[in-house]
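look at this record:
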Amino acid sequence: MLPKEKRVNKKDFEFIIKNGKTLYSSLFSFCYIESPLPHYAFVAPKKSFKRAVKRNKYRRIGYDILRKLEHNYRVSAIFIYKKEALNAPKEEIQKNIEFLLSKIKK
């Protein structure tokens, strides 16, 4: 899990969704906005992940992968899982996260 100071808070969440840029991959919708300090959030929608256990599991997987990555991106970002992520292995989730973060530089 990421430390609380590196996660997106509630007031910034709506601002990022409304005003941020959006990228897509096979497993995520990715909304981001440039900021001086990096903040991240993972969202597992109730529509796609019916059980709270699954939603929490996939959020923890995302935070764990992000914590292990070496990155210096100055963005506040939200990763929103798609329904296709339900059957995806952890390695594929990691590849999608790395792909989306690499697109920010360009």
Remarks:
- The domain at 4-104 is CATH 3.30.230.10 (Ribosomal Protein S5; domain 2).
